[in-house]
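One record is set out below.
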Amino acid sequence: MSNSGLPADVDKIMDLIGSWAEMSGYLKWNEQAKIKADMMNVRHRWSSSRVSPEALRSKCRAVGLADDETSKVVEWLRATQEGRQLHPHRSYRRFSFEQEPTA
């Protein structure tokens, strides 16, 4: 676990997401699709035993996501952890982040 309370792989992913949002001023649709796709394609990365909604919310704020963007990401996490499906844009359905899930 990093000092954010998140596993190192998720922490790095959120840093990347924050840099995307910083460049454009917001989290664009394709970036949102990438997050959703990774949550669907690498479910074990986002499991409740690894990522708590509170830690993810805190990290979203720390990397500069707006409140509405933070709420979306946390809701996607909850849906993923409940076994529900997210529907990323079709061009990103197979996307996953390079970071390997860590212990």
